[in-house]
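Hey,

Quick one before I head out. I ran the complex with flavin-adenine dinucleotide overnight. Inputs first:
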Amino acid sequence: MSDAMATHEVLNQPPPLEGYNLFAADAVLRAGLHREGAAWAEERLERLGEITGGEPLRWGVQANTHPPILRTHDRYGNRLDEVEFHPAWHELMRLAVGHELHALPWRDPRPGAHVARAALFFLTSQVEAGHGCPISMTYSAVPALRAQPELAAEWEPRLTSTEYDSRAMPACHKRGALCGMGMTEKQGGSDVRANTTRARALGARGPGAEYELTGHKWFCSAPMCDVFLVLAQAEDGLSCFLLPRWRPDGTRNRFHIQRVKDKLGNRSNASSEVEFDGAWARLVGEEGRGVPTIIEMVNHTRLDCVIGSAAGMRQAVAQATHHAAHRRAFGKLLIDQPLMQNVLADLCVESEAATVAMLRLARAYDEGPRDEGQRHFARFATAVTKYWVCKRAPALVAEALECLGGNGYVEESMMPRLYREAPLNGIWEGSGNVICLDVLRAMARGPEVVDAFFAEIELARGGDRRLDAFVSRLRKDLGDFRAMETRARRVVERMAVAFQGSLLVAHGDRAVADVFCATRLADDRGVAFGTLPASIDFAHIVDRARPRPEGS
Ligand SMILES: Cc1cc2nc3c(=O)[nH]c(=O)nc-3n(C[C@H](O)[C@H](O)[C@H](O)COP(=O)(O)OP(=O)(O)OC[C@H]3O[C@@H](n4cnc5c(N)ncnc54)[C@H](O)[C@@H]3O)c2cc1C
């Protein structure tokens, strides 16, 4: 008798989507890398693309199946305030740090470095999103830290090291260090000016000086980082501080982890509640200038929210198109069923729009230091794009999950993890409303940012009449300030799709640009995904997005 049960013949199930190169399989990412000035990084992306299609997929599962454990005290009752992770977490971190995802533009600031780093981060984020949090915060902290040159001189070499060193010990003895962020408190996260944590100067006050912080942070992700940029109230108002886990005398800083949060998703990443009980810290920038100082960090983490959401969308599309290409129903492959083609093509277009926007945005970070217009563009377009891409991600992932039918609802398919992760970037670093209000504030400060934004969009003028008409209407609407705050979401959404549409018209695949203009700009669609007009070349759009592991 054979081992197999007579009733257990497995038919019509797709092969797992693994063993493929995530970069090579992504035509949109490859073209964007070249277009936005980082062709020099192609080999690096090829390498990481190959790696991420293999073992890291398993690490992603393991790191989320075995979430981190908080160890507040040792067996004798001494405070430890450490978090234990599954080895898979450390592998993911080692991979990301080793490939410079936390530091590439600071280590090698050549043109295109932010674009290259965005593309690399896009690959690892598809495999596992949680470990991207400390990686992103470390990348983002460096420009804020540079406001205090002597602190930057001490910490930047550690934060940009390519060695991942997870040991809980003073950073001066480690081979590499990571940085976190503490702004949000119990009484408020968006309204950080309501922070109650107090900072008391230990001697002379002023930039770089020593203080003691007393208070708490309600969300402090990745508490095993070596150092944190935090906000606290000093004599002259809300200020930014650098707070290490260890004091200069080699003792543990009074940074006490109270709890690790039980979260919807992002479960591999420890997000904690901490108390500062007279914690030692140093002032970054001037007292009372905490928000302008830390905003440098916030802008970069917002860029990463866009990259992370675009990555989740891309992986969801990869999984959905792969499944549909191998699963039959009613006598045909799902990918050949007209209504499924409509759904998949719609998802592919949305994902492509997110990817091109993220890469263009990253280029503005490359050019910003030398070009004022790009600096204005980066500041404004980051908020606009963060709002919209993060808003589209949960809807897209839910629809992609449905493409797998019941299999998509089962943990092993990866879709539940993508689904749970999808709303997070919309909350982090400014939730939807707060981001829209931020866009309005930037507009009110002067015409430069809006001019820089429209200058970018106008590069595509003449490419598609639907885009031209949409942009003209949008410009007119922006001149009407009545009830602007109430209308903010609608205005920002339209700016975001104008930006995405301009990129697709100027550089994208013609069929994709055509669908985008017809449906997102000229409104020839329903509300749900899969309501595109019937005249579209669905097969072409789906085909170019679908990854093809060898032999499938
Ligand atoms: C998994 C996770 C990890 C996190 N990690 C960190 C971390 O490491 N460090 C850190 O500092 N923070 C962290 N955060 C906190 C996060 O940044 C905040 O949750 C976020 O900024 C929102 O703040 P809040 O939760 O206090 O919500 P609130 O500020 O109370 O906002 C609630 C809602 O009201 C809306 N709202 C607020 N003001 C207005 C207004 N004027 N008009 C209209 N609507 C408004 C917001 O958009 C939001 O939808 C983390 C959050 C999560 C979920």
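The CA atoms of residues 151 and 190 lie 27 Å apart.

Talk tomorrow,
K.
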